[in-house]
Amino acid sequence: MRRLPFFLGEAYRALRRNAAPSLAAIVTIAVTVLLVGVLVPVLDASGSKTEDVRSQLELKVFLFDDASKQEIANLEDRIGRIPHVERVEYVSPAAALKILEEDLEDRSLLDELNSNPLPPAFNVKADDPDNLESVQTALSPPSSAGKPQPISPAIDEIVTGEQTTQIREVTGAVKILLAVIAVLLAVASLFLVGNTIRLSIYARRREVEVMQLVGATNWFIRWPFVIEGLVVGLFGALIAVGILFLGKVTIVDPLSDNFALVENLNTISFAPLVAALVAGAMVVAALGSGVTLRRFLRI
Amino acid sequence: MARARTRSRLRARRSRMPGSHPRRRRPPIVELRDATVVYPGGHVGLERVSISIDRGEFVFLVGPTGCGKSTFIKLLLRDLEPASGTVRVAGKDINEMPRSKVPLLRRRIGTVFQDFKLLPNRTVYDNVAYALQVIGTPRSEIKRQVPEILRMVGLGAKIHNYPDELSGGEQQRVSVARAFVSHPPLLLADEPTGNLDPETSIGIMQLLYRINRTGTTVVVVTHDREMVDKMRRRVIQLHDGRVIRDQAAGMYATDEDTSEFGARVRSEMGVAEPDDEGGGALL
Ligand SMILES: Nc1ncnc2c1ncn2[C@@H]1O[C@H](COP(=O)(O)OP(=O)(O)O)[C@@H](O)[C@H]1O
Ligand SMILES: [Mg+2]
């Protein structure tokens, strides 16, 4: 690496002397990074919202009022050991009433009750909402007669949320859609950046030919191109990040002050996003230069 | 290093033995044996060509367009590989070395082409310096050697110009300077004067002749029959990829120095002495 100064000098010379293609590459990278920089938080926020909705899906296992403490403890233990069950939460009648109280606007409704009508229950969460069904089957397997029979006489009823299936399907589709968009975006950015670099190197293929003629090794030829790629990636990403920052300060931040919604979108925070974008752009551009050169080096 | 030292010690011992001719034992700088080149598509570029060129020779390679002259040059640079036969440079079969060693081969061979092949966005100085940077020559050495070689080819004053600010003859001088700056044992010139007028051509030939006199083997591809006749050096003639004549220099003018050479060729070709072309005076 004692040749580093030489390679840096070569890269600087190339950038200065091929200003037009370098600028084109920088702009392409800036646009791509901008696109990625906007879409990643959006995809991420939609993804986590979807995940949020899905994670709220659960089974409610209502018990008879007369279930004994012993029965409840045993049952909790048994449910916890069913495959795919992630969490079992016992909700006593008192706790259920409290939740109801908090949910209701008009407390007076409850005051008229002289006893607690709510049954004890378990909230059962699966590791994935798609597994709720198998958990339900495990809780009340079909008996020899063919009718589902709860595993414990203490169980009164097992209830899945009304729209569980629907929500599961919709959110599943959204997840796939988001993944497809993310993949398309990644492919498009790679293609865009790769193509720009290819053009800029193509314009210099004769230069590469001459370098080989005087006995330059492939890495000797390649290093300045890789460094150039790093620099181009850095500048492109910095421009994009600047624009993103302006957008954040002028659009997103005021919005999130006014709307809880925007604030609640818990997505990647700005600093790691910027770091990832800059590093990604530099790596892609440098790799793009280095790899594209292979064709001209005929190795 | 160690091996080189052993070899030179061996050589020293051999030369002390009576009746041995150590210098003659050195392999020819270029040796083709039955080399055949077939281009993709089946066209035969060279057919069973056997040529041996000794160190220090000055050889012309002539023949009509398409007879395989450039193919021969490319073969020596391992830009092409023979379909059969062997190509040896300084005794080494260059097609047996790994691809990664090809740059090392090319550093030992200076090349000059009809179209100069200069890097357009580098100055004259940087073009020549690049050939030294490639082989890892220290900066201080480069700073010393480049101006020196440029003075030798008569371009001392144009050192910071870009190629497109120079005449064709001047650009070719830069290219010759680049080819020779690392003092390679072999210099290949593929129609170096193809784009130049007769007077400028003589200047370039004179330069190549001077380089040859430092001990470098020079192979010049040319169309210029008249120049070949006047220079009286070995001529290899190709036709349709075959050697049809290999004339070991009919009447070498014994040991002309460069200016005698220039003067003779000029007068025989009826070209006047140059009054500017910088390098002329120095040569
Ligand atoms: N890359 C190539 N592919 C196919 N044929 C080629 C190629 N290069 C040269 N040839 C053919 O090989 C023959 C010799 O070419 P070349 O050595 O360039 O001739 P010249 O003596 O004019 O330099 C020509 O007939 C040419 O058409
Ligand atoms: Mg040719």
Mean pLDDT of chain A: 81
Intertermini distance of chain B: 36 Å
Question: Low-confidence runs of chain A (pLDDT<50, min 5 residues)?
Answer: none
How many beta-strand runs of chain A?
4
Which overall shape of chain B is indicated by the principal axes computed on the Cα atoms? globular
The secondary structure category of chain B is alpha/beta
Q: What sequence of helices (H) and strands (E) makes up the elements of chain A?
A: HHEHEHHEHEHHHHH
Largest interface comes to: A-B, 19 and 22 residues
Characterize the quaternary organization of these chains. heterodimer
Main pleated-sheet profile of chain B: 6 strands, mixed
How many helices of chain A? 11
Number of domains of chain B: 1
Shape of chain A: elongated
Count of all domains of chain A: 2
Strand content of chain B: 15-25%
- Could you name the ranges of chain B where pLDDT drops below 50 across 5 or more consecutive residues? 4-20, 276-283
Describe the structure.
The complex is a heterodimer of chains A (299) and B (283). Chain A has eleven helices and four strands, in the order H-H-E-H-E-H-H-E-H-E-H-H-H-H-H. Chain A has 299 residues and is of the alpha+beta class. Chain A folds into two domains: 4-53 and 169-297, no CATH class; 58-160, Alpha-Beta Plaits (2-Layer Sandwich), CATH 3.30.70.3040. Chain A has a four-stranded antiparallel β-sheet with strand order 2-3-1-4. Chain A is elongated. Chain B is α/β, with parallel strands linked by helices and 283 residues long. Chain B contains eleven helices and ten strands. Chain B has helices at 2-16, 22-25, 69-76, 102-107, 124-134, 139-152, 168-180, 198-213, 225-231, 258-269, 279-282; strands at residues 30-38, 44-53, 58-62, 84-89, 92-93, 109-113, 186-190, 217-221, 234-239, 242-247. In chain B, helix 9 (225-231) packs across helix 10 (258-269). The chains are: A alpha+beta (299), B alpha/beta (283). The complex binds adenosine-5'-diphosphate (ADP) and magnesium ion. Adenosine-5'-diphosphate binds at residues 39, 41, 43, 45, 63, 65-71 of chain B.
